[in-house]
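note to self: dont lose this again. the chain is below, predicted strucutre after it. 276 aa total, dont forget to put it in the shared folder this time
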Amino acid sequence: MENRRNPRVNRPSYKPRPAGAKPPYRPQPDEMVFGIQSVIETLKSDQQIDKLYMEKELSNPDIQNLAFQKRVTIQRVPSERLDRFTRKNHQGVVCLIAQVQYVKLSNVIADVFERGETPFFLLLDRITDVRNFGAIARTAECTGIQCIVIPGRGAAAINSDAMKTSSGALNHISVCREPDLTETVKYLKESGITVVACTEKSARDLYERTTDLTGPMAIIMGSEEDGISPELLRMVDTHVKIPLLGAVGSLNVSVATGVILYEAVRQRSLPVNVAQ
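---
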């Protein structure tokens, strides 16, 4: 029976989460630094930052200049999102410490060629689910991928969940964070590396005899929501699709990544190039 003296007593004080919805992401305390001075000192240190969130209305030239120097993208968010990260006084800024050491793509390419190996890279365009990313990293390491490239903005946080889901693979594989994947694709092509997009929009079947996944190569996998961005699709050397024979029109991105990477492994293990 409703309390007539205070009608709000019997009303829920929260908005219920829709059934099946994921709980809001909350980083672990040891993954997070908050507060203006603490974030400034972290930016000045040798620690690498995975994400840097600032309240939309906040302006702090020191943080903004340091972030620019370290090539850390600032993500502008409402204060409510920062409140979900911590109940303490964050002063409008929170940064997440990277669980891996990011490396330069140019250094990786040079090292691969110096070792006499064939480049085999994986680019992830806006893969935002942490567990998908961790599963992809695990498969990538198992298939001999030398480097995973992610964008500076719109990528999953490489946090403890990602590390756990990767089963430690992220400790054994290079990760590059690039501010602009279109520039990255251009650089890879200039370096003699063929860029292949895996997309359902392609007319070429992954298992056609003319599909060649040998040689220096970078494979792009796209967002869980809308796939590879159109500007990247226009830039790649070629694209392929994984055949789907059932009623469901798509694969989970981590599963799709496994399919194409192991097809590349199969082709690379043959004594003669299957494209010939």
